[in-house]
């Protein structure tokens, strides 16, 4: 089974991705299931929920929350009360906050801890969501599983690998990563903490799969990356 952990549906200025078109893209690429959430620039969690209701056997919804919103905690609790939402999506860069801002983020992390839901967070070489900030939150909330989207991107992948090795509740999502960086993760025996993602519509499912399969040849490791690691998190699993 192949599950893509990083996909946007809905609309923002200049881009529109309907759920029907997205499902068609999944079928063409050979993706069995996918995590979907709205664009951070124009949040539409209701569209995500309705989309998952239409394709419950194919999609897992994550709710996108802007922590600066005065209703952020209420919105998160409401989303987690539905059967369609399986996790939280945060984008510190798009919404301009530091991931380790405890006064802003701790209330949301506590809600995720209470409901045993994972958080997928943009992770890159920037002042908002560096791997060291992931480490801070992973240490503070050891029962909350964090998925580092893009694995530190081009310049922070070594740091991303180091923090994932130290904190077993940090998982590295592969979209936009260089193949050699993924190879380094495999060499560090961290394939139980790698999660496949493509970041559509910016990324391409088929190209991202080819990248993984050009590096990882072991069938058990591929199963971990493509499905088992993510399903463990979606089912409430924790490495601790």
Automatic annotation (TrEMBL):
Is Lyase included in the keywords of this UniProt record? yes
GO function term, MF aspect, one: carboxy-lyase activity
Which Pfam families has this protein been placed in?
Amidohydro_2
Q: Does the keyword Lyase apply?
A: yes
Q: Where are the transmembrane segments?
A: none
User: What UniProt keywords are attached to this protein's entry?
Assistant: Lyase
All copies of domain Amidohydrolase-related, residue ranges: 17-216
For this protein, the record's InterPro entries field holds: ACMSD, Amidohydro-rel, Metal_Hydrolase
Under PANTHER family, the record lists: 2-AMINO-3-CARBOXYLMUCONATE-6-SEMIALDEHYDE DECARBOXYLASE
What protein name does the entry list?
Amidohydrolase-related domain-containing protein
Please tell me the species this chain comes from.
Answer: Thomasclavelia ramosa
